[in-house]
Amino acid sequence: MLRLRSLSGWFGRTRGLRRLSIFTDVRFQDLAIDPRLLRGLEVALGPGARLTSVQQQAILRQLEDPCQKRPDLLLQAHTGTGKTIAFLLPVLQRLLALEADGQVQAAKGVFALVLAPTRELVLQLAKVASGLLLYSGGQVRSSFVAGGFSMQEDIERLKADAPHILFATPWRLVHHLQSTPHFVRALGSIEVFLLDEADRLLDPVFIHKVDYIFRCLSSRPQMVLCSATFSEHIRKFAMRSLRANLEVISTVEADAAKAHLEVAQPVDQVLVRYEPQKFLPVLHALLVKEMLVNKGEPKRVLVIFPTVRWLQFFYVLLKHRANMPGLLALHRSLADDRRRSRAFRFSRGAPATMGALFATDVAARGMDFDVHTVIQVGPPEDREQYVHRAGRTGRLESSGRSILLLNPLEERILQELNGLQLHREEAVEEDESFSSVENNIHGWWEDAGLSASGHLFFASAIAYYLNELGRLRVKAGEVVQTVSGLLQSTGLPKEFGLPAIPRGLADRLRQKDELVAVRTETVRERWDVLSALTPHPSARRRAAVGGIWWFGQCQGKPSASL
Ligand SMILES: Nc1ncnc2c1ncn2[C@@H]1O[C@H](COP(=O)(O)OP(=O)(O)OP(=O)(O)O)[C@@H](O)[C@H]1O
Predict the structure, then answer these.
(1) What is the pTM of this model?
(2) Which one of 141, 298, 382, 404 is most buried, by most CB atoms within 10 A?
(3) Which of 85, 167, 388 to mutate to test ligand 1, by most ligand atoms within 8 A of the CB atom?
């Protein structure tokens, strides 16, 4: 009873899904847009394409505005509703207008700078821009700098492209600003500074880099902040830091303070609970079911894992031992070219085949995937992360499913995520084909490579839960029990015991104030797992953004720049 009461708050009261059209009646050809840009739009979106509501509000507003000093802009709309074109088109239109007046010259440097948090997103944005500029005759150009290419490759690309609009990840751009001669000068003429996934770029992981870049600009540009989510904290920070005449364009209803309403409307959001010992059968059953929904028509699935090691272990088991077809992995440890090609294989426009992409959060934001179902393994870090992960499906009014997969340990975290309400809970039956999977993967622990991968998964999952101890409010012993269950879901016999955990991790467990020793037998050695009774406050993303010099006044360039 207690359990039911605590869970009931997770399910939205809405019965059925609201389906409101995101499209307006306005067509791109009705706008005063450069014909070259219109042709690019026609190729990208098809002839006679209508604007989505965020595009109508953002594009019309900016096309109408004749003044040179444009106000800062905060743009918020649901995932998959066309924000990219909403913020790119006005910039490209301005550039083409300047070009028509003979004012755009390569020597003047970059006119617009667009930052995005991941290299995949930077490449995706750069591709959209070059598609729209297809008929500009090379007069207005775009380029990018991002990880995955050498610094020298970046420099050569920039020399060849001489871009007016530059897409970049903050880390790589700062690297160039600090080490590539004349790079700061190339950014001297920036008039528009755009942050895609702005709330992510303003969180503690990126804000120092963004701040550094901002201080390298010689004059204050127009700032455009764009995202599907702006937490109250980030919104207040942006309001304080942007110009007083800031314009806010938001198509997210005021009552959508609840995360499930911030996800695109056609997404069916469900919760699946599992016991750790059933993790693999449940994951397998979900994959089989979700890849074959709609009368056997093949569909694509995105599975988001909490850690790379977790992902890799189950990926190798299912793909290479169980020979499950169509699986691909995408994470930061992949070789650069593979990382690029895998993101592309699941993107919109790529040939449709059945399959599942096992990814970490590198795929959670901004990526324009063509997937029907998103499975989130474990709880999101916050409501915003939930919205972005779920938003990889249900794009542009297409239907989709978002499944949150939780074990009992993780359920407690959800209670912290106020307003995260899902449509319903679903039970998952083991798929009958799992017995053959079980046969195929049996004995994986005797394979040296897989055994090493299993060890790494075990340690990484413990470390992951350990970081969340404050939110979980459990003893470290329960963490070890849960992770052992996950491992045993692969058929690992109990008599084999558990892998040893690395010394550093064991030390972290021991560092807790009150310790209880739990003795466990392992394959290779005996080891002690120490469970802590003291909650560990997880402060990572809650760290205050304040105290950063930012966006206010420009007080010269940082000394580290050239
Ligand atoms: N007016 C339109 N008509 C048809 N298709 C469109 C239109 N605008 C955008 N699209 C397509 O919709 C898809 C989603 O657009 P986009 O990636 O810009 O969404 P988004 O709002 O930025 O999502 P996210 O918040 O996840 O980043 C893309 O494939 C894009 O080409």
Answers:
(1) 0.84
(2) 404
(3) 85
CA-based radius of gyration for the chain? 25
Spatial contact of 165 and 142, defined as CB atoms under 8 Å apart: yes
CA separation for the pair 376, 41 (Å, rounded): 34
* Secondary structure E strands in 505-544: 515-521, 526-532
Residue nearest to atom 11 of ligand 1 (CA): 82
Looking at every residue in the chain, the average pLDDT score rounds to 80
Q: How many residues does the chain have?
A: 562
Q: State residue 380 phi and psi, 5-degree precision.
A: -70, 160
Burial class (CB in 10 A: 0-12, 13-18, 19+), 102: exposed
- Ligand 1 contacts CB of residue 394 (under 6 A): no
The backbone torsions φ and ψ at residue 189, rounded to the nearest 5 degrees and listed phi first, read -105, 20
Instruction: Give 319: exposed, middle or buried? Use CB within 10 Å, 0-12, 13-18, 19+.
Output: middle
Return the residue matching tokens 């600003």: 177
CA of 475 to the centre of ligand 1 (A): 44
Pocket residue to mutate for ligand 1, from 368, 384, 388, 393, most atoms within 8 A of Cβ: 368
Instruction: Tokens 């959670």: give the residue.
Output: 364
**CA nearest to 354, candidates 287, 306, 400:** 287
Quick one: tokens of 482?
């849960």
Q: What is the DSSP letter of 278?
A: G
From 33, 42, 45, 389, mutation site for ligand 1 pocket: most ligand atoms within 8 A of C-beta: 45
Q: Are 413 and 472 in contact (CB under 8 A)?
A: yes
- Give the list of residues 6+ apart from residue 325 with CB closer than 8 angstroms, or none: 354, 355
Residue range 335-374, pLDDT digits in tens: 777 777 777 777 777 666 768 999 999 888 999 988 999 9
- 127-131, 441-445, 532-536: which has the minimum mean pLDDT? 532-536
Q: Which of 482, 499, 405, 504 lies closest to 445 in space, CA to CA?
A: 499
Rounded distance between C-alpha atoms, residue 221 and residue 112, angstroms: 9
Helix (H) or strand (E) segment spanning residue 143: strand 142-145
Pairwise CA distance, residues 173 & 222, whole Å: 19
The tokens describing 33, both together, are 């847009």
Strand pairing report for 73-76 and 23-27? unpaired
| CA 78 – CA 262 distance, rounded (Å) | 6
What are 294's strand-pairing partners? none
User: What is the sign of the dihedral through the CA atoms of 361, 363, 364 and 366?
Assistant: positive
Report which residue type is found at 262: E
Q: Is the CB of 391 under 6 A from ligand 1?
A: yes
Question: From the CB of residue 104, how many other CB atoms can be counted at a distance below 10 Å?
Answer: 18
